[in-house]
Specification:
Serine Threonine Protein Phosphatase 5, Tetratricopeptide repeat, Cathepsin D, subunit A, domain 1, 3 domains
Amino acid sequence: MRVFRATAGALLVVGALAASASRSRAQTLVAQNQRIVARADTLLIAGRIFAAESLYYIAVRRGPRDPGARLALGRYLAQRGALKVGAVLMEEARYFGGDPARIAVELAPVYQRLGEYNHLAALPSSAVPYGERMRAEYLRDNRPGISGPDSASVDYAVNDSQLLGRVTLVIGADTVLATIDARTEGLVLDTAWAKRKELRRFGARTLAARDVDAVTLAVVLGPYTFTNVPTHFAELRGAAKATIGLDLIGQLAPSFDPRRGKVVLRAGGRLPASFPGLRIATLTNDRGVYVVKGETIFPLGHPDVQRYFRNSRWTLNPKKGEVLVDSVGTPNAL
């Protein structure tokens, strides 16, 4: 009996030591992964996105159940346009013990861009305020859509104050000049539209118009009709002015030719793998769309970037996280 007790005691000690060693190894791995992710974040800010990407993948391979590594890789892939894969990785990070509140904040814009309004509406209020939640519930039952031909060419104009150009929209019986902005999401209308019948408002009645979440029921751009468009309001000096986010027009994989004043739009927003052009990587975050130039990232609307694009036909391919620059110099046919 004494031998049995001694053996059992020894086994308990060995088991405790093994468990302690396992916890220590796990803690060391997490600390090492945190340093790898921090280095990747630094490289990403510096514009070295492919070096950063390698480190994000290394961190996940070293710790498949490390929520911090999975969250970082998911956030990065979503910024590069792989929205669904990024969302799944972030959801897995939550499953593996990541901070639910922090992950919800990262997931909210991804669900918005994916159009997964059922998931967006289910996130906690810390990530989705009341008005935005009400709008998400509406869009869950009244999904946004785009109808129109397979492809079409639409007029647009570029000048020094609207570097990405302006397009003409029709809302109800009104014609609106909309500035394309890489920093904007959805549609921004002047506050004069806040109580118009062409929109639905969400949020407390006491809110100022600029703080209200809304949906524009129908927006016409050339032969295309966008339905149930997420909308915000701002002081734009009149109902005839608006701002359209590059995320919204980007759903049609637009090819811009500023020399001819034309933009080609494509239903479905997909480009063939053989589509011509120099590929420039993009990143999309809460501050807008960025392009990678050398060892730096620049906002797509930056004057240096636009000086280059002014002489080029360029195409936004958000599904692949890239801009394709097709021609520089003498204009040619689209």
